[in-house]
Design a protein that fits this description.
13 helices, binds nicotinamide-adenine-dinucleotide, two-stranded parallel ribbon, about 400 residues, globular, binds uridine-5'-diphosphate, alpha/beta, 7-stranded parallel sheet, about 40% helix
Amino acid sequence: MASATRVDLDGKPIKPLTICMIGAGGFIGSHLCEKLMAETPHKVLALDVYNDKIKHLLEPDTAEWADRIQFHRLNIKHDSRLEGLIKMADLTINLAAICTPADYNTRPLDTIYSNFIDALPVVKYCSENGKRLIHFSTCEVYGKTIGSFLPKDSPLRQDPEYYVLKEDASPCIFGSIEKQRWSYACAKQLIERLIYAEGAENGLEFTIVRPFNWIGPRMDFIPGIDGPSEGVPRVLACFSNNLLRREPLKLVDGGESQRTFIYIKDAIEAVLLMICLHLVLLAYNDDNSSQENPARANGHIFNVGNPNNEVTVRQLAEMMTEVYSKVSGEPTLDVPTVDISSREFYGVGYDDSDKRIPDMTIINRQLGWNPKTSLWDLLESTLTYQHRTYAEAIKKAIAKPSGT
Ligand code: NAD
Ligand code: UDP
């Protein structure tokens, strides 16, 4: 429920903000819009090329938040309305990006333009107009762990000093230039450095978010159903597609890479804290009292992930197979997974992050936030959604004779 009487940490009513959200029609944007409409009094100017994932918030226009969300269909690459919309808002959140690994080595130019060049005007307009910016970067800026360069049998590989990723201490370790996989990480790193420099030299108020594999309903697309049939989405949608079609799940290079997965709803709570601390800033500025709270989010880079949910990709495939069988009532396949080389799956120039464990010290200290949902629970609710949303459409697509 929207609440006009929500209060800040001082017990004062929260002042509604206008938020310019770029990329609001994507996976994270759709969940953030939902949360802001349901639980805050804020207004969202939602910018994107698509709005399918937020249609339920825009229609019918009789919804109780109808006057608090406004969709603007625009491409930030070339649209003169961008600066005006940023000026109208108190805060800009930039989510727009090409962010599917299958694109990094096959469309490196689009990837670099999207993640660096297209984000430049957003940073510039925020800085010039004195507007706060929350920019979405990625855990991939860390690249590979230091430990991955140690001999396979080195006991130091078990030492967290060699693999836990810390915002203010870990290096960014990418592969060679021919490994075009790193075009995304490198572009994200440079935009982070630019934002940080705008803060240091020109006083830009910013927060940088580094998501660690956020997953949940509405992530990406199911090839051939609501996306291109030859498209390759991120691993959750790839494996969901295989399960829905009763095909073995494809393990790239044996599925040995490790990831930590966090439920989108836990992660959105962290973003809300970053936004609301800004509210505390506005309230404090009104009466010139404490400046302590805003410093908690501003000028910081935050890892947002769940270090307790670590699995290899192979273990993820096994767990998803088990959970999907439970929620769909269908038996598992006799051969549930199949190995495939990265060259065959992604093409030349692919490379991988070996392990991604977020250090939680900074986000804990600054925002007091912790993730809650276990991997099993988040897969259960997500795969229930995937089954409910896509199972019938897949059955129809499979039944249709090819060429019709
Ligand atoms: P997404 O692809 O679902 O959403 C991105 C949205 O931006 C899309 O709706 C797209 O249409 C829009 N967009 C892209 N270019 C645009 C342009 N030029 N003009 C207007 N709109 C444009 O991705 P997501 O998972 O929601 O990710 C959001 C952000 O978080 C990205 O910056 C991504 O790099 C970062 N991130 C996400 C994850 C994750 O786990 N989901 C992990 C690391 C980083
Ligand atoms: N992966 C896989 N099979 C698939 C899709 C992805 O084995 O069908 C692997 C991929 O090689 C990577 C991991 O799963 O090691 C996570 O991939 P994702 O696309 O989610 O992006 P990343 O975490 O690498 O940014």
